[in-house]
């Protein structure tokens, strides 16, 4: 059996390397998404509006939430734990970034169902105007729902040497643990994505492959991304279910170390969907790959003429 010290050391290394990989991959992927889906060939699609807004919140979620988790769990440096205002703002922003991103992805999946439907009335719901309205409502909703976080969270002293950012409000803890996280964040989005993925896949089978190739590409990559969300959220949802079921369970030091290891794994996988969305798009969409390849072609085309002009100048000088 692994000792407590060894298990704690493994947990710390998993936190450092896991969060570091997610941080680097997530920042690169979010910036790449913003570049690709702001190009002319994608701008006209309502789906691109959802992906762009989700990418903005992914960037903030990864660069802010993952960085603070890396510092706190990997290096025992929590710059917000000793500051009441910083604690509340950090928790509120992490809440808004995470939930708004999930809302954007649900809207993306719903839009894919709209635009692949055989019904003209349903297809007409896939518009940029409706997308902007729904995105505004989505952002505003989570900003308002997260307001209690600014009230109940605070810096709490764990012992003489350690402070943590948490809440002692039992009603809010029950609301967050029993409803907000397992139901609103995990089960409801999962059900929405599964239902609309099945409906969209059924629509795809009835589509003309020659007429809707780009729509099919975008739809398939959104369906696969929904599967990634389901996988990355399983441990996160399981963790909160375990917290609820084992709230009165007495724990020894070894059990606490085991739970901490599982918590770190679930926290890291929680960010997978935000960190790796672009790579799903890249591998599944020819259009996304062509935009990315175009960046390197432009750079190569800029370098070659400069090299030729320098060679021509040197040749002219030698002839003189």
From TrEMBL:
Pfam families for this protein: 7tm_1
InterPro entries hit by this protein: GPCR_Rhodpsn (IPR000276), GPCR_Rhodpsn_7TM (IPR017452)
UniProt keyword annotations, A-Z: G-protein coupled receptor, Membrane, Receptor, Transducer, Transmembrane, Transmembrane helix
Residue intervals passing through the bilayer: 16-37, 49-72, 92-110, 130-153, 183-201, 222-245, 265-284
Domain of life: Eukaryota
Major subcellular site: membrane
Membrane topology: Multi-pass membrane protein
GO MF terms, alphabetically ordered: G protein-coupled receptor activity
Subcellular location(s) of the protein: Membrane
GO cellular component, one term: plasma membrane
PANTHER family reported for this sequence: G-PROTEIN COUPLED RECEPTOR, PYROKININ-1 RECEPTOR
Name assigned to this protein: G-protein coupled receptors family 1 profile domain-containing protein
Organism: Adineta ricciae
Higher taxonomy: Eukaryota, Metazoa, Spiralia, Gnathifera, Rotifera
């Amino acid at each position: 059996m692994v000792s407590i010290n060894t298990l704690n050391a493994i947990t710390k290394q998993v936190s450092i390397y896991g969060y570091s990989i997610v941080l680097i991959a997530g920042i690169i992927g979010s910036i790449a998404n913003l570049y690709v889906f702001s190009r002319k060939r994608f701008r006209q699609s309502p789906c691109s509006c959802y992906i762009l807004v989700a990418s903005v919140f992914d960037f903030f979620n990864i660069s802010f939430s993952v960085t603070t988790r890396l510092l706190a769990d990997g290096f025992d440096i929590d710059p917000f734990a000793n500051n009441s205002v910083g604690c509340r703002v950090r928790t509120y922003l992490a809440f808004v970034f995470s939930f708004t991103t999930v809302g954007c992805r649900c809207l993306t999946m719903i839009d894919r169902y709209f635009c692949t439907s055989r019904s003209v009335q349903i297809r007409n719901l896939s518009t940029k105007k409706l997308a902007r309205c729904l995105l505004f409502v989505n952002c505003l909703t989570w900003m308002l729902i997260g307001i209690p976080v600014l009230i109940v969270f605070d810096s709490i002293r764990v012992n003489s040497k350690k402070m943590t950012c948490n809440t002692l409000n039992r009603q809010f803890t029950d609301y967050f643990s029993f409803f907000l996280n397992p139901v609103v964040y995990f089960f409801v989005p999962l059900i929405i994505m599964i239902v609309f993925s099945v409906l969209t896949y059924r629509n795809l089978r009835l589509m003309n492959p020659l007429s809707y190739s780009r729509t099919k590409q975008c739809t398939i990559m959104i369906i696969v991304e929904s599967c990634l969300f389901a996988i990355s959220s399983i441990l996160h949802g399981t963790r909160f279910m375990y917290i609820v079921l084992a709230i009165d369970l007495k724990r020894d030091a070894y059990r606490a170390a085991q739970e901490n290891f599982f918590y770190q794994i679930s926290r890291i996988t929680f960010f997978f969907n935000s960190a790796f969305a672009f790579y799903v798009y890249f591998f599944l969409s020819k259009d996304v790959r062509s935009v990315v390849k175009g960046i390197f072609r432009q750079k190569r085309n800029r370098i070659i003429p400069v090299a030729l002009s320098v060679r021509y100048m040197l040749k002219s000088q030698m002839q003189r």
